[in-house]
Amino acid sequence: MSSSRRLRNNPPVDKYFPNDSLVIGAGVVIFHLATNRVVVCKDTRSGVWFLPKGRKDASEEISITAVREGFEESGYRNRLLPLPLPHLQPRPLETSQPFDVEPLATRLLPVSMHYQYLLFWYAAETLPPSLESSINATTTSTFTPPTPFPDITLAEREKQDRMEGSMYEPKRHEGTGVDADEVFYVGVLMGVEEAVQCLRGSSGDVVKRAWEGVVLRRKMEVESEKNL
Length: 228
Fold this sequence. Notes:
GO terms for molecular function: hydrolase activity. It is a single chain. The protein has helices at about 60-75, 130-135, 155-160, 190-200, 200-225, and strands at about 20-30, 35-45, 50, 55, 80, 105-110, 115-125, 160-165, 165, 185-190. By secondary structure, the chain is of the alpha+beta class. The protein has a single domain, classed as Nucleoside Triphosphate Pyrophosphohydrolase, CATH 3.90.79.10. Strands 1, 2, 3, 4, 5, 6, 7 and 10 form an eight-stranded mixed beta sheet that branches. A hairpin with a 5-residue loop joins strand 6 and strand 7. The longest helix is centred in the C-terminal third of the chain and has 26 residues, at about 200-225.
């Protein structure tokens, strides 16, 4: 990134929200790794750019919410991307993998005077062509949770999108929205720098953090291969 400026975190707070006053949601930063692009949504009515996000369904895992909302609002199937994120969560002793699926950031938003919105942001990637095709063989515009990111390097994953000398272009599905507003949302793949400029604010900061994680993972995997 040309600028390393980040938003400063707010001071920790102690607030209590009972279940009937809390709305929980998740959003996602979806990368096409092979071309260093990111999915950004546009509301065609207002021209406003945003990252896909939305409320958690009852009894749904929050990480699944992120992937589902990414698909419904942008039209791109995606799966969560493990990254070397700095975080404060304990890692099981038997786990040696340095890459985790954890929120990039969390935001507290007031829905109204009576409801608090708690939003978690995750990093993800577009699906490889083989997985995309297998899901599309059974459904086209319905959300289906994909298999997790496999135990391969990002370089190995990116090769899957370079087919016979050509670059695979992730498929954008039409009609994936589930409410009246989402009919007007269009997902677009653009360069990371351009996305940050379009989004700005906390959403731009989330893209920066996700991209820093991708760049760091690539560097760590290259160094690991050199040491073999």
